[in-house]
Amino acid sequence: MKFTITHRNKKNQLLVSTKSLERFLGRIVNDDARNTVENFREYVPYLMNGYDGYKDMPTWMHVHPAAEFQKSENGLLKMKKNNGVLLLTFVDINEDGGVDAIKQKVASLPSTLAAFVGADGISLHVLAKYALAKGTLPDEEVAADRIYKQAFLTFAPLYQTLVKAKMQMPEPSIFSDFLMTRDSFPYYREDALPLTLNEVFHGAEKPVESVDEKEADHSSGGVDNDRKELSDNIMSMIGFLCKKYDFRYNSVMKCTEYRPKEKDYWGYQPVDARVQKRMTLEVQLANIRVSIKDVRNYLESDLLSTYNPVENFLFKCEGKWDGKDHIRALARTVPTDNPYWEDWFYTWFLAMVDQWRAYSHRKYGNSVAPLLISKQGYNKSTFCRSLVPPELQWGYNDNLVLSEKRQVLQAMCQSLVINLDEFNQISPQVQQGFLKNIIQLPSVKIKPPYGSHVQEFPRMASFIATSNMEDILSDPSGNRRFLGVELTGPIDVSQRPNYEQLYAQALSALRAGEKTYFDAEQTRLIMANNRKFEVVSPVDQYFDLYFDLTDDAKQGEYLTAAEIFQELKSHIGSSLKLNSLIAFGRKLSQMPTIHRKRFNDGMRYLVVRKS
Question: Which of 90, 219, 309, 609 is spaced 20 to 30 Å from 197 by Cα?
Answer without folding.
Answer: 90
